Amino acid sequence: MDRRHLPLSARRLLALLALAAGPVLVLGVLFVLPVTGMLREGFVVDGSFAPGGVLEVLARPRVHRVAWFTLWTSGLATALSVVLGLPAAYALHRLRLPGRSVVRAAVLVPFVLPTVVVGVAFRQLLGEGGPLGFLGLDGTPAAIVAGLVFFNVAVVVRTVGVAWESLDPRPGQAAAALGASPWQVLRTVTLPALRPAVVGAASVVFLFCATAFGIVLTLGGVRYSTVETEIYLLTTTVFDLRAAAALSVLQIVVVLALLAVSARLRAVPDPTAQRSVVPARRPRRADLPVVAATVLVLGAMVLPVLALVAGSLSVGDGWGLANYRALTSAGDDQALLAPVTAALATSLRTAVDATWMSLLLGGLVAAIVTRRSHSRTERRVRSSLDAFFMLPLGVSAVTLGFGFLITLDRPPLDLRDSPLLVPVAQALVALPLVVRTLTPVLAGVDDRQRQAAASLGAAPWRTVLTVDLPVVWKPALAASGFAFATSLGEFGATSFLAREESPTLPVVIFRLIGHPGEMNYGMALAASVVLAATTALVVLVVERLRVPGVGAF
């Protein structure tokens, strides 16, 4: 049957499916196939379905200890992140403080720092000879929780702060006029209005803590393992792929459940969603405790970074740049096959490739899921595609790297020696971030403008250039920056896939701290500073774009 004789709704549906075929194929081959292969490793024995192996792994006492450690450390870190983040969210989003915009940008930096860098910074801070070494916290669960809080408190500050600055102040003012104390206003008016944002931020923080990798691996080693690091150790040290696959299955189920709960909580009507931003006001005397608490939080966030920088400059009994000059060497006892400078170049090249891949695929996905639906069937198809394209968010980077390792190693998809293997994995990790950044922007474009351009004879590509591009170019730059920063610091999947002769910088840092020797440790500190500075610079440039909603997690 000639397509021209089909009903308009059928033609639109076919066009939608044709446009989505490419991204679906890419995600199917590079995501669904590796994850399916990982699941098969756990459930299929000699070609037969045998779930007993998975159940046997999950019944091991060590697995129970790992699961419990993951649960309580993530829960405690989440609670502390909320408690510490709420005062800072209020101070930085509701009060007109000196340098507020700079501080708000700086608060975001710890969240995008490579996790291995955060781990090294806390080792330097809490280790023997460090500024807080006298506390004896090095190598303890307290150090891991502190690292998780440092990494995730920005999520609470940004998410709750954005909601707080949009909160209508009049109900609180009315309660105060009726005699309510500031504490009563906060408890009975403000916090109930902010509950969707607070709960949503807490659920995301818990997810990030439960799937943390570099922080736990660096600070906990083999003594304290979460599910994420246990998968890595089972694969690379014990070579028990079946146990690793079983834990990956457990992690996928838990993470998808957390995402479902988070999505349900975000669906709760938010009274701040449709309000404009309320101008910040000058601090009052009653705000001084909140400001003081914010200063303490900021100081605690700066301390690990300062300890890292100071450690990188410490040489023997003095100060100098010897650790930085050593970055061109292979370290003590030839600890590295490639020097740190070469690894930095590899990381930058990889980040460029991962960025254009994630932006190309994410831009197409955002365009597909945000176009106006003209029928119930079309709307359901778009909704299903949206859920499918967000699947990478439900699988940790370690699980994804493990899946790549055991599936993309034979023809016709033997990518083990391909230089694109690591960029592809990192692009999939960054894909949900790109989609979440571009989707609300494209969804806000009035479809009538596209229709008007088409009615005037504009081709589809010209409509995109004249209607969509002027709106989306700045968010696209911001999404590119965050994808680039994510790729620079990605360690979970890359730790499985990076080749010995061309590792990325996070992998090299972890190798350096795993080799004894003062020179190796000094090089690890210097390399961490270089990587942190590069990542922070990218994020600060993105923040200068001031794109609404970007980075609001």
Automatic annotation (TrEMBL):
<feature type="transmembrane region" description="Helical">
    <location>
        <begin position="241"/>
        <end position="265"/>
    </location>
</feature>
<feature type="transmembrane region" description="Helical">
    <location>
        <begin position="521"/>
        <end position="542"/>
    </location>
</feature>
<keyword id="KW-0997">Cell inner membrane</keyword>
<feature type="transmembrane region" description="Helical">
    <location>
        <begin position="420"/>
        <end position="443"/>
    </location>
</feature>
<feature type="transmembrane region" description="Helical">
    <location>
        <begin position="66"/>
        <end position="90"/>
    </location>
</feature>
<feature type="domain" description="ABC transmembrane type-1">
    <location>
        <begin position="344"/>
        <end position="542"/>
    </location>
</feature>
<feature type="transmembrane region" description="Helical">
    <location>
        <begin position="12"/>
        <end position="33"/>
    </location>
</feature>
<dbReference type="InterPro" id="IPR000515">
    <property type="entry name" value="MetI-like"/>
</dbReference>
<comment type="similarity">
    <text>Belongs to the binding-protein-dependent transport system permease family.</text>
</comment>
<protein>
    <submittedName>
        <fullName>ABC transporter permease</fullName>
    </submittedName>
</protein>
<keyword id="KW-0812">Transmembrane</keyword>
<dbReference type="Pfam" id="PF00528">
    <property type="entry name" value="BPD_transp_1"/>
</dbReference>
<feature type="domain" description="ABC transmembrane type-1">
    <location>
        <begin position="67"/>
        <end position="260"/>
    </location>
</feature>
<feature type="transmembrane region" description="Helical">
    <location>
        <begin position="385"/>
        <end position="408"/>
    </location>
</feature>
<feature type="transmembrane region" description="Helical">
    <location>
        <begin position="142"/>
        <end position="164"/>
    </location>
</feature>
<keyword id="KW-1133">Transmembrane helix</keyword>
<feature type="transmembrane region" description="Helical">
    <location>
        <begin position="354"/>
        <end position="373"/>
    </location>
</feature>
<feature type="transmembrane region" description="Helical">
    <location>
        <begin position="286"/>
        <end position="310"/>
    </location>
</feature>
<keyword id="KW-0813">Transport</keyword>
<dbReference type="InterPro" id="IPR035906">
    <property type="entry name" value="MetI-like_sf"/>
</dbReference>
<feature type="transmembrane region" description="Helical">
    <location>
        <begin position="197"/>
        <end position="221"/>
    </location>
</feature>
<keyword id="KW-1003">Cell membrane</keyword>
<feature type="transmembrane region" description="Helical">
    <location>
        <begin position="102"/>
        <end position="122"/>
    </location>
</feature>
<keyword id="KW-0472">Membrane</keyword>
